[in-house]
Amino acid sequence: MRVGFITAHGPGMGHLRRCDALRNALEKRGHEIQGFRFDDTDCVVVDDPSVNIGDVYWSMPGYIEKQPLVVLIDDYGEHECKDNIVIRPYTDPELAWVDEVWRRRRKYDDGFRAKVAYCQMGMSPEGKALAEQISEALEIACGPQWGYTAYDCCVGAPGHSSWERCTIGQPTLQIIFSESQVNVANAIEEAGAGVTVWNCLEEGPVDESALKTRIEAILSADALSAFMSDNARQLCDGKGAERTVKLMEEWCKPRTKEEWV
Fold first, then answer.
1. Which end of the chain is more exposed for a tag (fewer CB within 10 A), N or C?
2. Going by DSSP bridges, is the β-strand pair 117-120/69-73 parallel, antiparallel, or unpaired?
3. Over the Cα atoms of the chain, what is R_g?
4. What integer best gives the mean pLDDT of the chain?
5. Are 47 and 9 in contact (CB under 8 A)?
6. For residue 26, what are the CA distances in angstroms to 1, 33, 163, 225, 250?
7. How far, in Å, are 22, 58, 130 from residue 235 at the CA level?
8. What is the DSSP letter of 31?
9. Average pLDDT over residues 96-119
10. In the chain, what are the domains?
11. Do 18 and 98 touch, CB atoms closer than 8 A?
């Protein structure tokens, strides 16, 4: 297949990270990546909530003749994409696109205890400021993007990083500060892979004292910590990109060289 990408370039980097995971899985299967373009492709991967799928169809040169497959990742549950593939990680975490490096870091420690925490709230200015505020109040590390396995749990924002953390069995003590985080937060909590410790949408700005009390109560419960870690590992195994590629191969019939002429 020839595969193109339409990807949001937001400050959180989650869109780019997960698309890169899918790109790696596609290349391992011998498929050709067209980059951030969607003309002359067998398949278009759309990971941008601002994109209207109808506009994608009609802006593609020769779309009616070529009819490429569209793979749409939908974090909000707002899109329908008839006769194409829609990926909703918060309802199908087994299809979350996580780079294979996380599988190599998976924890299998029966003695797991969530005693060592860090704070990671994304790369947006708002998230960084909130992470610094919280880490200072709780006296924990702030914002590591890699080396997650040095920590037992994360005080963080729900998002693509949630699935990376699940892959290594790392629970998330969730702080919601954006509507875009609600679906993922609900999925993590319903699966017992984390707990929402503060919801800025409902409770307003973070109260550091109240937050610290809630987090310390959770971290002191060893059985709960180990339970969340096991649930996190079971929720997402980090193989979603490979599963998506298989779906794409089943749905998409690549054109021959003659058909491209």
1. C
2. unpaired
3. 20
4. 80
5. no
6. 9, 8, 20, 36, 13
7. 19, 38, 27
8. P
9. 69
10. 2-98+239-260 (3.40.50), 107-235 (3.40.50.2000)
11. yes
